[in-house]
Structures are given as C-alpha cells and as structure tokens.
Amino acid sequence: MQSITKWFTLLLGLAVVPTYSAILMKPINDPDLAYSGELLSGTYNQQITHPDTLLGFPIGSRVADPAQIHSAVMHWAEQSDRLHVVEYARTHEGRPLIAAFISTPALLSELDTIKSNIDKLANPLNTSDSQASNIIDSLPAVAWMAYSIHGNETSGADAALTAIYHLIASEDKDVEALLDDMVVVIDPMMNPDGRARFAKSLEQYRGTAPNVDDQSLLHRGDWPYGRTNHYFFDLNRDFFYLTQPETVGRVEMINDWRPQLMIDGHEMGSQDTYLMGPPRQPLNQNIDPNLQKWAKTFARDQSAAFDEKGWRYYTGEWFENWYPGYSNYSEYRGTMHILYEQSRMAEDGVRRPEGTVQTYIESVHHQFISTLANLKTLDKNSKAMYQDYWQGRKNNVASKGKFANRTYVIMANDNIGRTDALVSRLLAQDIKVYITDKDMEVDEATTHLGDVKEDIVIPKGSIVVPNRQAEAPLIAAIMEFDAGVNNAVLLEERQKTLRDGSSLMYDTTAWNLTMMYGLESVTVSEHLTSNMSPYKPSTHTHTLLDNAIAWMVDGADDRSVAFAARLMERGIHVRYIDRESEFENTVFNRGSIAVTVTDNPNTENLASLIKQTADELMVSVIATTSGFGEGELPEWGGKHFDLLTRPQVAILSHGNMSSYDVGATWYSIDANLGIRHSQIDVNSLNRTDLRRYNVIVLPTSYGALDKSKQALLDEWVNNGGTLIAHGRSAAALAGKDGIANVKTIENSFEKALDYDISLNREYMANLNKVDTKAAMSHTLNADFAFPWDDLPKPLKEEELTRRDKWLSHFMPSGAMVAGRTDQQHWLTAGTPEVLPLLYSNQPLLMSADNSEAVVRAGVFSPSPNKKKGDSESKKNADRWFTLPQDKALKVRMSGLLWPEAQQRIANTAYLTRERSGKGQIILFSGQPNFRGAALGTNRLLLNAIVYGPGLGSQENVSL
C-alpha cells in the first residue's frame, strides 16, 4: 500500500514540486536575469522602515499589490515628518486612492497657504502683476507625480513606492536641498482595482522557474486584463469626461493644486525601450506654446540621466497630444506634462530581440531615475515656469486674446438630467457656467452642422459658457466643435493612409462634450455677458395629489427610463406614451412614462413608491386627475399608452468580447438604470438557460459568434427575446450568413437598388406635401411613375464592391457624424432630430423594407447647387444611393473624416430594428456608450433595454 501511495505521489509530482510560498520566495539564480544597477543608494534614516522589510521582498523585484503599497505609505506617514498623506477617492471596489505630499516639515505645515497663493496666481482678474511677482517669489515648486493608471503597467507604482521612501528617508544633501524648495505630490497607483486584478493573475501563473516569454499568461493576464478599472474603463481617457470615481477625486485634487509639473508613468510593448516627452504632432492648438519649450528642457535632462547609465530611450515618435482626455489634460490648465512609457514586463523580465533579458527591477529603476531627473529640472526652472504660467493666465482672459470673442451655448431643452450632468463636468474643471434669464438674440452663431446662421434667438434657460475665462484653453479644447489641425499633419496623415493604412492619430479625433451628450449647441462669435446668471443645479419637485389617477415623468429626460425600469423592478405596472400629450395644462414629450391607478389596483402606497423612486433619481413627478388629452392629443385609455414589460437583462461577456464595451454597457445599466442584470460568459452560451432573460446585449467583439451560438440566439429571439448587438457583433449578425435581415454594406450590393428604393421611401414619407388634385382625380393618371423609374441604373455589384473596398481605407479613428433620427420610433424617445454619432473604423449597416433604419448617417439640407426651375429628379452620388435633386447631405460634424469616408458612411444605418418571429433584433453600428460619455447615443441603448420587451416583442419569453 505504501509503494502505491509513493507511486501516485511521484506521478503527480507532489514529491518534487515546492509549496506555493516556496515558489514566491525562490531566489532567481539565472545569470541572464541578474541586474547590476542599484535601485536605492545613499544614506537613509534608519528610523524609517526600509521598503524591503515592509514588503517582504526586495523592492522592485516583484510587483507590490495595492494593499502592500497602501500599507507601506501609511506606515511611513507615521514615521516621517516629511510625509503627509491624503485620501482623495475610493474605487468602485472600495480601495483607497491616496496622494503623498512630501516636503520639509516647514512647507508641509504651510500647505493651505501655498495652495491659496497658487489659486491667487491662477486668477488674473483678481491679482495684479506686482502681487503675482511676490507670490512667485514665495512659492515652492509643486510637482504631481502619478503612476500606473493602467493596472497591468506595474513598474510605475513600484517606482513611486521607491521614490516616496527615497525622498522621505534619504539623508543626502541633494534630496534635502530639493525638498527645501518643493512640494512633491506622489499618486502612487491610480488604478488599484486593475492592479489588484493583474497582481492576482501573477500569483496564479507563477512557476518554479523564471518565465521570460512575453506571450505567456504570466505576462499578459486574463480577460478583462489589468489595464482597466472595475467597470473595465480606461482611466487615461476619462480626465474631462469624469465618469469614474478615481478620476473625479483625482481631478478635483489636481485642479486644487495646479501643479507646475505632472508626470504619468506608463508601460508599453514588452519589446520596446523607453519613451519620454515631448510629444510629436498633432498637438492640440489650445495648449500654451510655452509648455512645448519646457518639454524640451525636461527631455534633455531626462535623456542625459539615461545616457549616464547607458539606457536606451526615445522621445515622441508615436505619442501625440491632440485628444485632451489623457492625463495631459493638465496642460490645458497650464501644467507641464510628461509621459513615461517603459517596456512592459512581469516580475521575471522579458527576453529581448538582441538576446538579453530586461528584468523587472530594471524597469522600476528607469521609472525611478526619470522621476528624480524631472524633479531636479523643475527645481532649477520653477520660477521661470511660474512667470510663463502667469503670463498664460493673463492671455486667457485678455480682451484681445485668442479666446476673447467666443461663447458656447447649449440651447434650452427638456432633458434636464443630461444637461445637469454636462454642466457638472464643466464646474468640476473650475469653468464658469451661466444660464440665460430671458430670450436673447445674437447676430450669428455656428451650429453643430457647421451652418452659420444670422439673428439667432437663444431661448431663456440656455446654458452659456464664455471662452474668455482663466481656464480658456481647456474650455476651447472640450467645447469647440472642431479641433484645429495644421496642414502638414493632414498631408502626412493622408500619405500614411494611402501608403500602408497607418495613422498619426493615436485616439479619436472628435470628443466635443455637447456632441457626445447629444445636446443642441451653437458657438457665438462674441463674448456674451448680459441677461444671464450663474448656473444653479436644477431641483426636482412633485405634485402627487391624493385624488390622482396617474403620475407622469417627462420622457425628454433620460432619467425617465430609469424611473420606468426601477418601478417595474418593484412590481409596478408602467406605461409608455408614444406621442406628445397634454393633461391638465401640462405638456409631456413623446416617450413620457405614466403610472396609473387602474394598472396597479392592489398596490399599497403606490404614490409613496413613485415618490421614492423619483427621489432616488432626482426627477420630477406630475400627477393628473384626468386622463383626457387636450385638443387632438391622446387619452390615457387609447393605443398611445403602451404597457411595458419588465426587462430581464443579460450581457454576454468574456471570450472575444471587447472588455471596454462590456464594461461600458455594464456601467450604463448600473449607473443609469440601477436594475438587476447578469453577465454571461459567451463561451458557456450553449449551456445557459436563456429563458430567464428577455433582453440580451451583445457588446462589440473581436471575433464572430459561431453558427451554433447564432442559432441558439435566433431561436431565443423568435420566442420573444430582444437581442441588442453593437459594432463588430452587429456585423456578425448582419453578415452573409448572419441571422439578421439587416446586412453590412459589403454584403448588400447584390440588391443595391432595393436599398436605394427603401431609402427614397423613407425620404418621401417625411415630405410635407401632397398632390391633392391627383389624389382626388376620377381619371387614371397616365403619367404615373414608380419612384425607381427616375433612378439611375445601379452600378454593377463588382464595381460597387471595388469602390467600397477603396473607400474603406479612409475610415476614421473617431469622428462625429450627423445622424437623422426617426422621431416616430420608440427607440428615439429623448433624442433630437439631429443626433451626433461617433463613428470609427466600424461596420456599416444597410436596412431595407424588411427592417427599420431608426437612425441614419447624414442630414438633408437644401442643395447649394439648386437653381430655379430645377426638376425634382434624383441625382446619383456614385454609390448605392441617390439624393433628391434639391437636397444635399451633411455628414461630418467634427473630427477627421476624409471625403471618401463620408461617401461610404452616408445614408447607412447607425441603428436598426427588425422583427424576428415574436422577438426583435436591434443593431448598433458602433458602441453606443463609448467611454461612458456618449450620452446622446446611450439614450438609444437605454430605450432598447428597458422598452424593448414591451414595445418590440409580441409576448414575453417563457420563464
């Protein structure tokens, strides 16, 4: 028996495999992994605990997890009078985010005074030149050093821990001298949730021997990987959208301190070297040019520090500063910003192309030396940088400056929740916002569509943001309709596109807040100051009435969708009003929500539940004692009051699904609706009982669903389910063998004429004219013609395919397209007629008579070429569609959208809906909740999720 046990032990390797703790503590003896550099050197205060002791391993040899980093910093805060720690936020998972203020005890005792003086220097309207000069003389340098905003880019946070210890414990004279003149703020790990996820994967995939293969799971981790936060958001794209708590807290503190220098420690491809500033073109034209001057100064000193140690590096090359949503947003407030990009590796290091192995501790050392080099440069140049900062702030408010005569106006609207949300983002950035007290007329204004209109009336209640403010560069960067780009950049981008399909653009080229939020806005070419008051957040009120027969929430407000969803979750029956209505002198927009006593006869405290839900959402409820519709408007017992069905929602996740879009969808449901839902692993779809759900959301993916999974979803839809798909997942369903009737553009050319006829039918259905004489004639009209009689003969399928392939080369990295919405469709409730749509290199959808094109790309406008006497015949656009002779089509709103891309995108469908059996398929061409900030298109998604089961399906899924 003993021999059998021994045999099994040997077979399983239990006799030779060390325990897990032994693996963790196993010394690395591989000579290739040896590193001769010394991370910490010099004389240190022995009263400050060495980080190796706190961590249990040599600092920089392993990845310190969030708990270890936080514990070490808090421990040092009790030991050192050079360190003051502030918690500025908590993550979704409850982990603290901290800022470590490091300086001399004297300066740390004066932090409030220092911050007050910085605030005075930032306000040129209340501070004179002489006062500014005195403030500059007294101010220490202020640096904000931030690390590892991407959780799997770990070396920055370990370098931050090293830097904190070095600065608080070093007894070297150069460190003491540095702190005599400077307050250093270290944000050691900007994404604790993501770091915790990656640190856990390291524990899971460590082996007995060092693994230097950067393709292994040890280096890459698991879906959704450690880059993002709890909701899979890239926090380095959120600095002005402010959707996540990490960003909200961080931005508030950075804005309070207005540091002279902000660094952001990242990692990049494992086979790369080290990138540092300054960035290359395109550069956002709103950034103070003086900052580019200082960027070169810092780069020279940082590169010299690397040269001294023989470390390879480069500046710029692939990093540009056009999109303002990175951490470099601080540049728009006058801060010098530097990006670090260290080649990424896990603890064992990575074998490089030249055959050497770069160790993890070497990566940490690179980040640490960069930190010290930048601090030394700041120390030398702080006073001169303050002088430039002061001059820049004065230029921002100058009456003849570049920002002097420009005002952004958000037109008054009924979407109070969304408008308040946008304004809250502006106020968080110290931007002054006003509201008009009465109607006011301006000489001219430019619309989202680029039209310059004269004698525009700005209605009472509109939001006004003058650009002539201290924060003018940031205001312009996030509010201007088009970010300027110079001709040289456009030329190089065009050449790259044609040569090999590459791009200068690192991110989206359109990000305007009012377009992302889907709110009508204009730019006025003057500095508006009269007939307006400082903005105050709206308040919600209720009229509940003891004798009410129904309670309403206006459908223009996005919160009305959540109101309906939460009440249904609580067992309340809810109705959707599909057209504008009026009860007891109160007008309600299309899509309003009604709760009636007759639908809920057995519900106790109905009014109290309604009030509770409305209070949670801070939305107003209005009661009515009559169901009679004023004029020709609908009554409460007619067909326009549709009874909704409670959504039971699943999101397909993991596998090839995009974690960004999964997270954005998950976040949208949690943050906007607050109702229960489930994430389902797409890999186990065949083993999932789909009858539990009546809504399934399929986020965009990196690979198509196989035929068996599509067949399973097809059966579920036909039994009454609402299937919602985004981006490439929508393309899979709309592919040649997909389950949808909608097709992608490349699969549509065989029936190009049918799609053109359907497009013209939609156009004709919206015409406000009719031939009364012909309609009432008793005689057969011999001149009658079909709409397609005047259409040009379609190009052959082969030619359309060839043209589409050519045009596809020019698809954008992110641009705003004008969308026209079907204002009678339930999916568009709460959206304007013209809705900005963010398009990137995404699939294009084609909808004909067997489906509904709810939102299309392009907005009709009068043709600039129409002459008197022109006929109403159609004109060919050299594509699959034709345009009426008297119409032009506006496509581009903002961003880089080549003419070829406009031609390809024009008239395709952004959002489609089709019936399939008892259920429906809803397809989005792109990602409707892009970065949690595209609130305009996100409303379409919320409508689909909450209203779909009741309005688009014939009956419930069998549960």
Automatic annotation (TrEMBL):
Keywords: Hydrolase, Metalloprotease, Protease, Zinc. Residues 77-243 form the Peptidase M14 domain. It holds the Pfam family Peptidase_M14. It comes from Alteromonas genovensis. GO terms for biological process: proteolysis. Belongs to the peptidase M14 family. Its cofactor is Zn(2+). One of its GO terms (cellular component) is extracellular space. This is Peptidase. GO terms for molecular function: metallocarboxypeptidase activity; zinc ion binding.
